[in-house]
Amino acid sequence: MNQKIDQMIRGLEAAIKIAPETRTDAPQGAPAVSLDFPPQNGVPKRYRASSWSPDDPGEWREPYSKARKVIRAGAILSLVGGRGSGKTRLAIEVARRVNAKGTKYMSAMDVFLRLQACYRKTAKETEVNVLNELSRCQVLILDEVQERGNTEWEDRVLTHLIDKRYGALLPTILIANLRPDELKKRLGSSIIDRMAEGGGLLEVTGQSHRRKDRPTP
User: How many domains does the chain have?
Assistant: First the structure.
C-alpha cells in the first residue's frame, strides 16, 4: 500500500509540472472581477489585502501559475513545505483571482472544533449544516492539515468532505507543514487517490518569509 501511495505522490508532482497554463484571469472584454474577500469567508486579516501580483517577478510566480491551473480545473491541490515559506499566502492569492467571493478559509483544527460544538445542547447549527457549507463553497482552503489528532472520526470527516467536493468538481487547497513523503501519513490513500485525478502536489520551498520580516537583534 505504501508503495502505491509513493507512486501516486510522484505522479502528482510530475503532473503539475506539465502543460503550461494559457488561460488568463478574465476573458478580454469581461468586467473586472473583485479581488476582495467577503468578511464571512474566514480569510485572516493578515492576508485580506493583496500585496502581490501574478505579474511580479520572483519565487512565487511559477508556483502560482501551477497552482492556479489545478484550482481552475476543479481539482485538489496540496501545498506542502516548511513553516513560513508562503504556502498560505500563495493559496489565498490563487483563490483571490479564481473566485474571491466564493472562497472559504479554515484551519483543519477549526473545522473539527466547529463540528464538535454541534453536539452541545445549545448548538445553533448541526454537523450536517457545517459539512454542507464546506462541501458546497466554490473554493475551500484547509490550512494546518498536520495539526489534527488523526483519530478515526477526523479521518472519516476529512475523507467525506474531500469526496463530496471531488464529486462536485469543486477545488480544494490543502496546506500542511510537511514533506511530500509525510503527507501520505496524514491524508491516507483515499484522499491521495482523489488528488491523483487532475490534482497536484506542490512543495513550496525557500527561506522563511517570517524570519525575513523580523528585526535584526
Answer: 1
Q: How far apart are CA 180 and CA 173, in angstroms?
A: 15
Residue 148 buriedness (CB in 10 A; 0-12 / 13-18 / 19+): middle
Distance between CA 48 and CA 38 in Å, rounded? 9
pTM for the structure as a whole: 0.80
Q: Quickly list H helices, 100-216.
A: 108-117, 127-136, 152-167, 180-195, 209-213
- Give 47: exposed, middle or buried? Use CB within 10 Å, 0-12, 13-18, 19+: middle
Is residue 52 within 8 Å of 93, Cβ to Cβ? yes
Which domain covers residue 182, as residue numbers? 60-205
Could you report the per-residue pLDDT of 109-152, keeping only the tens digit for each?
999 999 999 999 999 999 999 999 999 999 999 999 988 777 88
CB 195 within 8 A of CB 116: no
What single-letter amino acid sits at 89? R
CB atoms within 10 A of CB 165: 22
| 3 inside domain | no
117 vs 126: CA distance, rounded Å:
9
- 19 within a domain of the structure (yes/no): no
Residue 82 buriedness (CB in 10 A; 0-12 / 13-18 / 19+): middle
